[in-house]
């Protein structure tokens, strides 16, 4: 659902530029494909922060097209996306989430901060408060 497809483009400079159809604000760069893939996760998480700052729902990933590579986000990031989108469905602000969970503003802010690592237990509790349950599956690589 949130495994975003990216594409590489070469230009006159060494390395690869990286783009994502589903996240038009996302732009990244890598020295080679492996470096570009590792940088893509950080770039996507930074882009997701823009959606939070603009109070917009985060789009689901579309199926990859020919020539695209798929970026698998960390489980914590996917849980934060689910939490943020559940908040957007209810027109909730971060302050509303803090009141609902009975936590301080800074603690609630970190739950939807894609550049901060949160504990899965905290994200599960927040999702549960919004009537959601986190389900994780394991697939072959």
Description:
The protein has 141 residues and is of the alpha+beta class. The protein folds into 2 domains: 4-71, Double Stranded RNA Binding Domain (2-Layer Sandwich); 75-129. The chain is 43% helix and 12% strand. The protein starts with a strand and ends in a 12-residue tail after the last helix. The model has no long low-confidence stretch (mean pLDDT 93). This is Antitoxin HicB. InterPro entries: TTHA1013/TTHA0281-like (IPR035069).
Mean pLDDT across all amino acids: 93
CATH class of the largest domain: Alpha Beta
Give the terminus-to-terminus CA distance: 16 Å
Number of helices: 5
Detail the poorly predicted runs.
none
Strand content: 5-15%
Class by SSE composition:
alpha+beta
> CATH topology of the largest domain, what is it called?
Double Stranded RNA Binding Domain
Number of domains: 2
**What's the CATH architecture of the largest domain?**
2-Layer Sandwich
Gross morphology is elongated
Order of helices and strands: EEEHEHHHH
Count of DSSP strands: 4
Computed Rg? 16 Å
**How would you sum up the major sheet?**
4 strands, antiparallel
Helix content: 40-55%
**Strand order within the widest beta sheet:** 3-2-1-4
Sum this structure up briefly.
This protein is α+β, with helices and mostly antiparallel strands and 141 residues long.
Write the layout of secondary structure elements.
Layout: E1 4-9, E2 16-19, E3 27-30, H1 33-53, E4 69-71, H2 75-89, H3 94-101, H4 105-111, H5 120-129
Helix pairs in contact: 2-5, 3-4
